[in-house]
Structure formats: structure tokens, C-alpha cells
Amino acid sequence: MADSTDRTASSKQEEFHNYRERIKCSPEEEARSEKQHFWNVINAFKYYRTHVHERVNRAERHFRCLPDHHQKLLPNFLPNLSKLRYCIDRNQEVLQAIVHNCIHMFENMEYGEDSFLKEDPRKVRPASTFDMDKLKSTIKQFVRDWSEAGKAERDTCYKPLIDEIQRLFPPDQCDVSQIRVLVPGAGLGRLAWEIAHRGYSCQGNEWSFFMLFSSNFVLNRCDEENTLTLYPWIHQFSNNKMSSDQTRPVVFPDVNPQSLPEDSDFSMVAGDFQEVYTDPDIWDCVATCFFIDTAHNVLDYIETIWNILKPGGVWMNLGPLLYHYENMANELSIELSYEDIKAAILKYGFELELERDSVSSTYTENDRSMLKYLYDSVFFIVRKPVDQLINGDQTPKDGQMEDSLYTGNTEGKKT
Ligand SMILES: C[S@@+](CC[C@H](N)C(=O)[O-])C[C@H]1O[C@@H](n2cnc3c(N)ncnc32)[C@H](O)[C@@H]1O
């Protein structure tokens, strides 16, 4: 007779066996939760100031608990907190500008109004720690993608991909405007923008509202270099060598995002990569950067990429395997080694063209911090053969046939 542990195990198994179906609910429910999520993210942008001021107030309270003679040893402590408060308010101004009018950002989705804000649109409710952490990461993402300070990082992450696109589709040997490149999980859009800037037809895809609001702001509403300022490191209270490191500004954008060639074909599409991209044989190149580990099951991503690439098309990938769902309760997470991923890719029928298994790369690094993470990333290029020997399952899954609720080109993008 099975004991209760067995029963739990088998019901869990069932749940995850149908994980694609598990996340589906009725279209009405899905639309409702999508709208709620949209408003929660906007609320998080507005709650930022209160949240971070509370953190600084805590630092002040703790300081004031110190004996007088200790406080006197630290004459710069309170002035630094005042600087932090100034920086928080400046960050809030930028965040406010980012979410200004973003209700009209999506072409094919109406988000109505937040029931909480009905009486007073200026009202802000406390946001979750999870959302505030996402917002702080988004602020750091501006450094990676749109500042001079992020150039070194972009050179390690984006440049290898861009160089290979130019090698495989040389501008002097083909009409690059006819080469269709897709960048799934595009973040704030710099990689996709750089590819479009070189004349390729390029589409970025992203599903996080934090990223979508922010990329929409830079790509569509910024048109002058280095005119905006963020203070991305103020949330870091540990590992600062100098107090002023915490409050140093970063200006952006380091390029004019409107400086794409006249006839360029650049778009950003919102939605889940697997749900949006179901049409087969469309793309000449799929470029993934720090993306494949965002999957519940990376094999789903491989399958989608195989399906959407034209025969003869290439998939290039650079990044680590820091599985996003690994530590999330009730979320399916298949953590594969690179060795296993590579074997699966080859079994699909992809042909390996290039492999570098040790590419040092950073992600939103604070270059003055006493703690830094260095990823030993893999970089590979595989090709879907012109004559396909199909080993993988190419049948579109039910879950991939549904349109994403917030799929759509974002405002004013060149398409
Ligand atoms: C680690 S970030 C990398 C962003 C960007 N490629 C870069 O290198 O800066 C992964 C991005 O993928 C996005 N993402 C995760 N799952 C996605 C999905 N299923 N469809 C589209 N985007 C997704 C996340 O919102 C996040 O912006």
C-alpha cells in the first residue's frame, strides 16, 4: 500500500507532467491576472521612492543607536544618507517618466484602469519585495545596455554575437536588410538595436513589463545622448570601498537610440517567446544572450528555435546556466548541464559550427564593488541544416498555439 509520501510524489508528478496545461486558465481569468500584473508593475515603479527611503531611514535609525563617541567617529555617515535621499528622488523622477503614459504602449492590449486607483490615481500601495528587487535590477540594466559605463560588459556579451552575425551574413556579400534576426529575452533592447543599427532586420522579444516599459522609454522617447541620470548603486549598502561609490551617477543613453538607419527594420514584441513564435521557418538567425536559463525546460526553447529557424538558419547563444526557476517553489525547473544541452541540440539535428566554452562575462556589474560575479559562459553557434534530418519533435504544442495576451509591437517602433 502506498503511503502518503508516495501519493504526494505521484500527484506532483502528474502536475508537472502537464506543466504547459497547468499554467493555463480560462481566457477571462488570464486577462484579469494579466491586467493586475500590469498595474502591479506600474505601482512598483511608483512605490520605489517610499521603499528605498525606508531603507535609508533604517540606516539612520541604526546609526542613532550608536553611542555618541562612535557617531562622532563617523562625520560622513549622515551626509552620505542625505546624498542617498537626493539620489532616490532623482531615480524616482526617471522611473515616473518611464511609466508615464505606458498604458497606451501596446498596440493590441487595453489595460483599463487599476481598481485601486479609481478614486485617486496618485495613490500608491506597497509593492512586493519581489517586484522591488526586479525594479532595482532593471535600473542596473540601464548601465549594461545604455551607458558608456556598460561598454566593457557589452563588449564581452554582445560583441561576440554581433561579430559572428556580420561574419555569417557579410554586409558586402548580402543584402543585410533581408536577413531576419530574432533576439528572444531582449532585456532593454541594446543587442537587438545594435544588430538593427548594422542594417539587419531585427526583432527583440521580451515578456517582463519592467523591461518592456524601460526599453520603450529608451527606444521611443530618448533622442539625445547622455541627458538622463540614474544612481544604480544606491541600493548596495555592502562592499563599497568609498561612500561616494554608492551615490555615483550613471548617465544614459550613451548613443541616440533614434540614430538607426532611415529604412531600418527594428521592432520589439511583447510576450512569452514560446507563445509568440510559432510560425515555422521564418528567421535566418536567432541570437540568445543570457537567456536560455530562463526556461522551465530548456528543451522547449530548443524546440521553438528549431521550428522558427529557416532551413540553413543559425542559432547563436552566449551565456551561463543560472536556472531562473531553480529555487522557486511550485515551478517546474529542469536544470541541465551544458553537456546535456549540447547533446540534445545535436539530437534535434542542429550542426555545431562554433563552440567556445569559457567566455568570461559579467551581468550588470558594479565595477567598484568589493564583490563581483564572473560568469564562465558558453558561446556556441549551431545551424539548422538545409536538408533536415529531424530527430526532435517538431509538432507545435497546444500551449504554443495561443496568442500571448500582451503580444504586440510597442508604440512607435519602426517595424
Ligand atoms: C537574464 S535577462 C537577459 C537580458 C538580455 N538578453 C541581456 O543580455 O541583457 C533574461 C531576459 O529574458 C526575459 N525572459 C525570460 N523568459 C522569457 C520568455 N519566456 N519570453 C520572453 N522573454 C523572457 C526576462 O524578462 C529577461 O529580461
Short description:
The chain is an alpha/beta fold. The chain is 42% helix and 15% strand.
What structural category arises from helix and sheet content? alpha/beta
Strand order of the largest sheet: 8-9-7-6-1-2-5-10
Give the ligands present.
Answer: S-adenosylmethionine
As a whole number of angstroms, the C-alpha radius of gyration is: 23 Å
Give the full name of the CATH homologous superfamily of the domain at 134-384.
Vaccinia Virus protein VP39
Separation, N- and C-terminal Cα atoms: 62 Å
The parts where pLDDT drops under 50 for at least 5 residues are 1-12, 392-415
Can you give the helix content as a percent range? 40-55%
* Discrete helix count: 15
Overall strand count = 10
Give the CA-based shape: globular
Q: Give the ordered list of helices and strands.
A: HHHHHHHHEHEHEHEEHEHEHEEHE
Beta-strand content: 5-15%
Please state the average pLDDT score. 89
GO biological process, one term: methylation
Region (Disordered): 391-415
Subcellular location: Cytoplasm, Cytosol; Nucleus
Keywords: Cytoplasm, Methyltransferase, Nucleus, S-adenosyl-L-methionine, Transferase
